[in-house]
Amino acid sequence: MRGILLAKLNETEEFTEYMTRSRAAVEEALSGSIPLDWEMPASLRESMRYSLLAGGKRIRPILVLAAAEAVGGAELVPSAMPVACAIEMIHTYSLIHDDLPAMDNDDYRRGKLTNHKVHGEAMAILGGDALLTHAFHQVVQASRKHRVPTDQVLAIIEELSVLAGARGMVGGQAADMIGEQGITSLEQLQYIHLHKTGDLIVFSLRAGGRVAGASEEQLTALETFGRQIGLAFQIQDDVLDLIGDEQKLGKKTQSDVAQSKVTYPYFIGIEASQVEIERLTREAKEAIEGVNLASPQRLIELADYLMKRDH
Amino acid sequence: MRGILLAKLNETEEFTEYMTRSRAAVEEALSGSIPLDWEMPASLRESMRYSLLAGGKRIRPILVLAAAEAVGGAELVPSAMPVACAIEMIHTYSLIHDDLPAMDNDDYRRGKLTNHKVHGEAMAILGGDALLTHAFHQVVQASRKHRVPTDQVLAIIEELSVLAGARGMVGGQAADMIGEQGITSLEQLQYIHLHKTGDLIVFSLRAGGRVAGASEEQLTALETFGRQIGLAFQIQDDVLDLIGDEQKLGKKTQSDVAQSKVTYPYFIGIEASQVEIERLTREAKEAIEGVNLASPQRLIELADYLMKRDH
Fold first, then answer.
1. What is the ipTM of this complex?
2. Structure pTM?
3. Residue B253: which CATH number?
4. Which of A47, A202, A245, B233 could form a disulfide with A123, with the two C-beta atoms 3.0–4.6 Å apart?
């Protein structure tokens, strides 16, 4: 009994270390991705770096790295770093634009003033545009610096342009904006979750897999994994907004209620939402366990970690 | 004498026809680039299509097509169309974001209400983001639909991500925003022109050349051509704002003066500005004539056309 407990503890500790190490590697790569000696207006660089280096869980880039490791082993992780940075740039730009007065009009994000509160609206718009554009530059570096085959890099760029665009994340954002005037069905809410959050997570998994030369079967399993944890992630966000700890979350809870936003718990209740999170996480893991992968362990751990997170 | 006049007239007519035909082809390709049956929120699609299909001179896409023709002959033009559409998407998104209240706060563009006046600020921001993202999807189609080699397509994507980004167009926009608080030198003004307008024109030339498999020497000549006509184009814009015909321009003149914007004529006067336009145009043509190209005629004609335009 003691042995089992200890093993479990070590496993947990080891995963915590893995996350700390991965986050540090991502932070370093992100900081290096906009060199200080590149010629551009200083205020634009500051706007870009302010939000890109504002911390955060770095879930998406770590999923890219973990997917590459799952398919090709740990030695493939460095080759996946440019794509990991790219997805964090896309995520960051979407937050900057989403926080603008014309959109959600938020003053704080992760306990810090939002980009436009510090750099002004114009520089927030331009900083976001520049990060979005720079994401594609990053993906190309997977070929330039790590010799990922050009046809894989091109496929990654194509998928990014779809999953981050009008048929993907931006479409989800737009549906969310429109939905603020009234979502009437769970299907509408699922559309928003699927695209606003889910598509970038699916991209992260597939792109990480592609860097490591994944087969179509492996890509499909990674996509299913991403789709299910992406939805679970968003439902968890809704649940945490209702019953989470403000200190840990770094933001006010009950904000969805205050803004009369409909959420998963709104439609099916908190308990059923939690059951749904567990079901989705189980399905995600099953998809991964159902194919032959070199080292899927980190992905499995990440799925459990996301399900149990409190912020 | 009569013969020479007649030949000149025919040449002019033929170029006018070329422009009409090229514009029509670009319009058709742009309209097809966001299919009506793609799943996305209708209001987002409308925002994107509203600005993308709002007319305009289509100079940048035509420069892409003309550069491909210059290097590889007329049969290379269809392969260049996806990149031509991409650059117009980038140009269009930059106008949408530039017109926003937080930026230039313009109500009209080309005689039509600006995007945010029709679709609201949120959908204008998202429509712009979606067009920027979709531009990269378009470039990939040069490989998918026209078998442009993947290494050329990847190089085009890399150059687009630089020339449209923080070190390129967005950097120029940012410098322009900051400059509204006071530009003190011609060098600052040149930086803005070089990046805000020049970089996309340089991209158009190089990318069109790449589609046709241009050599490094040819790419350098195309770049010089683009750099010089890009700067001439912008000075011409400044001059037209001072002495142009409001009817033809489709916008009020003297707007730079009204906004106390410094311009080329402000620094060196109208006459010297016109001499500068002619000098730049001559240098552009000399760069093209200095290398071996299959059919450079359209580029030469385009340089003259841009110099003589009245809108």
1. 0.94
2. 0.94
3. 1.10.600.10
4. A47
